[in-house]
Amino acid sequence: MAPVSEIFDEKLWRSVAGFDDLTDITYHHDVTGTIARIAFDRPEVRNAFRPHTVDELYQTLDDVRQNPRIGVVLLTGNGPSEKDGGWAFCSGGDQRIRGRAGYEYEGQEGATNPTAAAGLSEAEAEAEAAAAAGKRRAAAGRLHILEVQRLIRFMPKVVIAVVPGWAAGGGHSLHVVCDLTIASTEHARFKQTDVDVGSFDAGYGSAYFARQVGQKFAREVFFLAREYDAQRALDAGAINASVPHAELEATAYDWATTIMTKSPTAIRMVKFALNAVDDGLVGQQVFAGEATRLAYGTDEAVEGRDSFLQKREPDWSPFPWQY
Questions:
Q1: Long-range pairs for 209-214: beta carbons < 8 A, 24 or more residues apart
Q2: Fewest CB within a 10 Å sphere: which of 18, 32, 46, 110?
Q3: Same structural domain for residues 220 and 289?
Q4: How many Cα atoms are found within 13 Å in the side-chain-facing hemisphere of 152?
Q5: Which residue segment(s) compose the domain that 283 sits in?
Q6: Are residues 181 and 305 in the same domain?
Q7: Which of 71, 77, 86, 93 is catalytic?
Q8: In CATH, what number is assigned to the domain containing residue 180?
Q9: Of the listed 170, 171, 205, 283, which one is catalytic?
Q10: Is 58 a catalytic residue?
Q11: Binding residues for substrate
Q12: pTM
């Protein structure tokens, strides 16, 4: 296995089949197949994301979401930078490719799928390429990192932000939306750069952050755009733990293995219940869907379905009116 990150333990992780062509993200499952590690892999630019990065991030997170064996995701950033030795979780959107309508694919070409045209005629391949190009042109005019935020928020798994260095701008927002955050005592630095670059996260990155740390500190972070370290973040309630850098990934993995000893159904329902406090009707809808899924698994629900299919009156007598 090629080197991934200086604090990456290659004995714990395995590459994931079908994801060999990733360029901006690394994706691994642990040796038990129950914990995933997804990492930004652009340390030379402080793990800033471009549209292609976001495409890969969404793809890997969605693969985790659909995997019934995985219960925890460690979201982190590889490093350090060979250029200056700096560490980063994610420094947000790459400002070099920010256009008037959003972050643009380089040359408006976007990510290509080398297998997309396999087995197609030349005309079919050209049509496929034209359709893909049209989608990319539309995608360049939107901030699809917000779709990643929603995926993290509504994924029925625990997502732990593992912050080895800078979490700035959109990277700051990503750590905010994760369920838990563990940061490097020595290298983690937090900064919300929106007001410095004429941008703003008016959703989870700001409003939910204020819920976590209180209005005064949130306004200080956004209005002054000053960096703060792991200790200040811990004191404010913005992160869950600050640990020595060398122990960062091991600590995160230990937390993940502990979570994997818990009830999967209880974890997902508690996550969605906690989300519902802040997510309004959308959060209530997600919670309601999960409650319905639970109900479908009961003997009472099975009796209701079977009686309908068998065209008979349901027998509710075995089911008490609980109090």
A1: 209/173, 209/176, 209/238, 211/278, 212/176, 212/237, 212/238, 213/237, 213/238
A2: 18
A3: no
A4: 25
A5: 264-310
A6: no
A7: 93
A8: 3.90.226.10
A9: 170
A10: no
A11: 46, 91-95, 103, 166-170, 193, 199, 296, 311
A12: 0.82
Considering the domain architecture, whether residues 176 and 233 belong to the same structural domain is answered as yes
Same domain as 202, residue 67? yes
pLDDT tens for 40-93 read 999 999 999 998 999 999 999 999 999 999 999 999 999 999 999 999 999 998
User: Which pLDDT belongs to residue 104?
Assistant: 60
Residues 128 and 153 grouped into a single domain: no
Positions at the binding site: 46, 91-95, 103, 166-170, 193, 199, 296, 311
**117 and 87 within one domain:** no
CB 233 within 8 A of CB 184: no
Options 199, 235, 278, 304, the catalytic residue: 199
Active site residue 229: no
User: What's the length of the chain?
Assistant: 323
Asked if 208 is an active-site residue, the reply is no
187, 247 contact by CB (below 8 A): no
Active site residue 93: yes
Residues 2/17, Cβ–Cβ less than 8 Å: no
190-221 per-position pLDDT tens digit: 999 888 877 788 789 999 999 999 999 999 99
State how many domains the chain has: 3
Catalytic residue selected from 55, 79, 103, 110 = 103
Q: Are residues 172 and 292 in the same domain?
A: no
